[in-house]
Fold these 3 entries.
Entry 1:
Amino acid sequence: MIKRFLLPALLGAAAFAAVSAVQGHAENTSRTYRQFDQLVDVFERIRAEYVEEIDEDKVLEAAIEGMLSSLDPHSSYLGPETFRAMQVQTEGEFGGLGIEVTMKDGFVLVVAPIDDTPAARAGVKSGDLIIQIDGEPVQGLSQMQAIERMRGPAGTPIVITVLREGVEEPFEIRIVRDIIKVRSVRHKVMDDVGYIRISTFNRQTADGLRQSV
């Protein structure tokens, strides 16, 4: 008699648990979508009522970054530019000119040409200000955007317009891009002691370390 009633009771309890789980999942999903609606509403209000015109892509990227950074210290969002830069750092080589640059007054300032690269061979010097790339002004570009314009497949030409101290007029330098290898390992010997410096880790690091040793 007990067995006769036990099976229906167990089945009923299992069915109730399943229904409760489904209801709980539905409630969580509904709450999540309400929060998404709130996020969209905030975005629309910012776009319509903020005192200045906003960069919508930057606002959305900031929202994504906020979601990921709330998870743990190691999760982050890589935008297209950052991702490409990370790929270059990992690969350790890219098609380009071979110059270290920074931004100054909206122009690209050459910190130094890398030895034995297209830029060095073409006569680019430290302190040169690049004001145009292929006839297009660099003002208004970020440093990464300017770098992306100067990079390209090996063998392709590029013309940079340069301002140089001591030269009155801007002038053009034509350069043919080549494969630039990021040198991550440097070494020298001082007083019979060898020193090795690893500035970054990429695919070239292991070979560079073996050669230095």
Entry 2:
Amino acid sequence: MNLEYQTDGYCSDRQSISAKDCFDSLTPNQKDLVEKSTTLLQFTKGETIIKQGFVASHILYIEKGLAKLDVTNDSKLSTLKLLSNDSFVGIMCSFACKSLDFSAVALEATTIRMINMDLFLSLIKENGEFALKLMRHMSSLTNEIMHRTSRIASKNVEGSLAMILNEFKEIYKSTSFTLPVTRVGLASLAGCSKESTIHTLAKFHKDGIIQMKDKQITIIKPESLELIIKNG
């Protein structure tokens, strides 16, 4: 078996497959079936979308909005990932067992498409391209979460907070945005205390790296933020 040939094109620098890319590989009839057979639900800011331990009866897909994916181990809550438009909610864990091993909370008004698990599994069986893209998408997410978790754990307060601010910059595609969380929520995302978060934000503001007014954040020196992420 020529392993070099078999793995060609799947190197680490290959562009990742998004959840939308997966659905784009469905046939017109399959897309129509998904549209007609699924339910759209609206969640307000702060509302729980799914709770850890619930039965895995549906695949959840964010049509529009922002949410955080959490997992609780030994009574300690950890945020694995921020989820924005066109994202599956916990797709990596949805096939692992009958109950979901994660929770998700809306950080702003969020629209969720609920896809019946049996329908989703039938699409995987019937459409090889969809199945392959889904597999690559899940692998990419797993890799991303592993590296994010490792980086957050190894950073000091400045480094982890800089990472979270940079994530919001990428989600909103702007250096100026309104934080969708409180200072306590931001501290939870960064894995540090509220006091450390407030102190570090004030330091970033004083050093001219960001401008801050209430929840409005403007990143003035993105290159400095990147340097803090690298060295923090």
Entry 3:
Amino acid sequence: LRIGVISTLSPYLLPRLTAALREAYPRLTVLWAEDKTDSLMQNLKGGTLDAALLALEAHIGNVEHEIIGSDPFVLATPAGHPLGAKSSPAKATELKGANVLLLDDGHCFREQALAFCSNAKAHELEFRATSLSTLAQMVAGGAGITLLPEIAVATEARRAELAIRPFAQPAPKRTIALVWRSRSPLGPALRQLAATARAAYSHVPAARVHRRSSGKPQKVSKSPGKKLPPR
């Protein structure tokens, strides 16, 4: 099987999923391809991929799918930041005027985070990261705040000094799914694979500790901010 996966999901899900697949289907060989949503969908429709793991909120067209899980977004700030010091769930109104770091164009996670931050009247900084790990490190360094998918928190909070707050309901989130071409003969097998993926997803460590803020972040120079356009 040839399965694509978005880069904001692969580092956090694939280690558990590949182990689960080896145990459940020891004779199965999966070739994984990490990319952005648009490229994955082009390859899926072109036949070079059999399926893809991505967020249903992206524009993916007419495909069959199985939902793997819901991935809420959380607010990530530098240690000691006023927005990270609160113990209550974060509200969108608290982000008004805040300097926000986001991913580069082409990431579906960026589009969702951009829409949320635009509605909150936050300011996007000029810097755009190519990965969630870079975002987390920049935030830990004091360059701004960001949104992270909850699935990434356990990994990124180990690497960087971050304060994490969940959002108040209704919280922003993405829906992770396994998608494939309509009427694909692999449909039944992919539904079985999706069940294994759901089980693996449910065991990925989540943001159980809502705040982690030991130590003070190193201050770094900030780029001039710009107000996000309305969505």
